[in-house]
Write a structure and sequence with these properties.
This protein is mainly β and 324 residues long. It is built from no helices and 25 strands. The strands form seven sheets. Strands 4-5-6-7 form a four-stranded antiparallel β-sheet, with no helix packed on it. A four-stranded antiparallel β-sheet has the order 8-9-10-11, with no helix packed on it. Strands 12-13-14-15 form a four-stranded antiparallel β-sheet, with no helix packed on it. The protein starts with a strand and ends with a strand.
Length: 324
């Protein structure tokens, strides 16, 4: 999207809305639950035009270096939270993916956009967007009412940056620290409670400062972590990370905040898709296979890519991914 003269590389994985999977007849770790709600919006209305650009003269969100983006599956809209460079005033925008139109939902409220790190994820069980701004602030955003609510201070103040991922099988949001030794927390957005998860062992990597990409792989009902060509899956019941499959193509990504590498699960193809340095690669965790979907390795760090799932507009060519 061209925003305030700045090209924001927003990769949207075109996903199918499938049947939610849950873990049953097993003891889950603290903070886990066994149910998730049904998706509210699974396809665009017949009269909509999801494949056509929105109005060229429409107002758009500000270009920014620190951005929180998440897709609200209940509302079928994308949330974009940032501040115009130099203003320091946060703005929250929504994108209707069926009409490709932006709307300013909130201005002046919500998490600070000058935090060290900013991340957001949609929590399906609580039907809200969970956002962390630095290590001292957690918020939830209710998209239908455009309401931000500040929540309990997260417990990772002394750990450094984290990545948020929604574990659909366990029905909870998970925060994974990026600095060794790795810590994990489960967040109950309904009760506003954090629970530390203590895996039986660390991620099986020698060094992973700022470079771990994490997604929930629905096909195998596991958290999937990628690190320079290596993949590990988190067993929710056993509480351990296990190496899985064959080594992936190791593309260049990372930098200080690792925004050059992004990861998203593609429901249309039942694969986890990773994007960076001119490459789009996909991992089939069930089969342990890798495939290159687009581009070729350029051996350089590409900044600004944000991968988000879009379960409404698929399938368009099945495994297509669009750079807008």
């Amino acid at each position: 999207f061209v925003v305030a003269g700045v090209m924001v590389a927003l990769f949207v994985g075109l996903l199918l809305a499938g049947i939610l999977t849950t873990q049953q007849d097993s003891e889950l770790l603290p903070g886990a639950v066994s149910e998730t709600p049904t998706d509210a919006l699974t396809s665009c209305p017949a009269e909509s035009t999801p494949d056509q650009p929105g109005p060229s003269d429409q107002a758009r969100p500000p270009g920014a270096e620190n951005v929180a983006v998440a897709f609200d599956r209940r509302a079928g809209q994308l949330m974009y939270h940032a501040a115009t460079r130099g203003s320091g005033i946060p703005e929250t925008w929504t994108l209707d993916v069926c009409t490709n139109t932006w709307a300013l939902a909130q201005r002046g409220d919500g998490p600070a956009t000058d935090a060290w790190f900013l991340d957001a994820v949609y929590d399906e069980r609580a039907e809200t967007i969970v956002t962390v701004a630095g290590a001292e602030s957690a918020w939830t955003f209710d998209l239908p009412t455009a309401t931000w609510t500040e929540r309990q201070v997260p417990p990772f103040a002394d750990v450094g940056p984290v990545r948020l991922v929604h574990d659909r099988g366990a029905g909870r949001t998970v925060a994974l620290s990026l600095e060794p030794p790795v810590h994990m927390w489960a967040y109950d957005a309904t009760g506003d409670e954090w629970h530390e998860v203590e895996p039986a062992g660390p991620l099986p990597y020698d060094e992973y400062r700022f470079h771990v990409l994490v997604a929930y792989d629905r096909a195998v009902d596991r958290l999937l972590a990628y690190h320079f060509g290596h993949v590990a899956l988190f067993d929710e019941v056993a509480g351990i990370w296990e190496t899985a499959g064959t080594q992936a193509p190791a593309f260049v990504y990372g930098g200080y905040e690792s925004y050059g590498g992004e990861i998203v699960y593609d429901e249309a193809s039942s694969r986890t898709v990773l994007i960076s340095d001119g490459l789009v690669i996909a991992h089939d965790a069930a089969a342990g296979d890798w495939a290159t979907l687009w581009g070729e390795e350029r051996g350089e760090y590409v900044d600004g890519g944000i991968a988000v799932e879009d379960p409404v507009r698929g399938p368009l060519g099945g495994t297509d991914h669009h750079l807008a």
